[in-house]
Amino acid sequence: MKKNHSPHVVGVTPPYTVHRSRQQMVRDVRDGLTKTPKELSPKYFYDERGSELFEEITQLPEYYLTRAERSLLERKISEIVAAVRPCSLVELGAGSATKTRLIIDEMRSSGCAECYVPIDVSKDFLEATAVQLQRDYPDIKITPVVSDITEPFTLPALAGPTLVAFLGSTIGNFPREPAIRLLSHVASAMGPADRFLLGADLRKDPEIINRAYNDSRGVTAAFNLNVLQRLNRELGANFPLGAYEHKAFYSSGHHRVEMHLTVRNAHTVVIPEIGEIQFREGETIRTELSYKYDRSTLEDILGASGLVMEKWMPADDGSFALALARAAED
Ligand code: SAH
Ligand code: AVI
Predict the structure, then answer these.
(1) Distance, CA 276 to ligand 1 centroid (Å)?
(2) Is residue 107 within 8 Å of 85, Cβ to Cβ?
């Protein structure tokens, strides 16, 4: 990597991180809920409970994304590691880093695995992931970083070459311009020998997509509603959870899933640091977008971010793809 900054390492500076992110949260919630239509950033799904619910989603029969990416990684990781020869791995939005173990295992068996830097906003969950990984891989330096990847992020000094992974199609939770801003930060942190590995969900039969976001056990609904529970817990808000309903649908025109919370009956919510907010019957809070891609759209987004796609690795059934990219020469 080109840059060498000091990171906010978990366990060393948590009060600083928590304090800053709370102020940001109040600002974001105020901005989002005073807009028409109302919205909340999907990053607020991920407190510890939200991260646990997401893990449950990845096990659901309807949620094909995680299984599709896992089987692609199993098939392609030796080729990727042989081509990049990474000694360090940085991961954006690492979560439980379950699939990441496939990358780390391959790096170790091919002779170089010095450090792993998982970056995530979900502080407690990230800490638990890092502790477990350090136990399982005592020979690798694990440096978790609590950070919002939409901000220009900082990275520790790393033994190169570095593979920067962004898995799970989390890129899909960002519309085009924010996605380009985020990936531009990645591109500018990469040196010539580094590579970016992106996992992305592809366009397909809308029924399959709709099922993935409307599972029969209601786990996605609980994940969606958890954002309001979080605002109740952390900001002392009084959202009546029973007054909201999970709604998710695929919009073919926009190539994206929209996730909303629909208001069943009108009410007023008080958030002490923000004030009173009115909710009308039938209105919605948009909580997430999840874009689905094709190769040319992704190549275009990567290109606009200063990245060049070198390898395109779609699943045999076309459900999901991995893309490997390098930074464009200036
Ligand atoms: N990579 C994992 C987890 C995907 S879930 C997988 O493929 O299964 C999305 C992850 O990104 C969560 O762990 C969430 O906490 C994290 N995340 C979401 N928005 C983020 C942001 N703005 N900054 C940092 N991490 C974020
Ligand atoms: C993390 N992200 C890619 C998931 C997605 O599919 O957009 C989050 C999610 N939302 C509902 N289910 C899963």
Answers:
(1) 30
(2) no
Ligand 1 pocket (Cβ < 6 Å) reads: 43, 46, 51, 54, 58, 66, 93-95, 99, 120-122, 148-150, 167-168, 170
Task: For residue 61, report the distance from its CA to the centre of ligand 2, in Å.
Answer: 14
Pocket test for ligand 2, best of 41, 171, 290 (most atoms within 8 A of CB): 290
Strand partners, 91: 118, 165
State residue 5's pLDDT score: 42
Calculate mean pLDDT across residues 182-209.
97
Cα of 47 to ligand 2 centre, how many Å? 15
The CATH number given to 63-205+293-327 is: 3.40.50.150
Q: Are 128 and 142 in contact (CB under 8 A)?
A: no
**Predicted pLDDT at 152:** 83
Residue ranges per structural domain of the chain = 22-58+217-291, 63-205+293-327
pLDDT of residue 2: 59
Q: Are 95 and 168 in contact (CB under 8 A)?
A: yes
* pLDDT at residue 106 tops 90: yes
Average pLDDT over residues 249-257: 98
Span 113-139, mean pLDDT?
A: 96
Q: What is the pLDDT of residue 160?
A: 80
From CA 172, how far away is CA 305, in angstroms rounded? 15
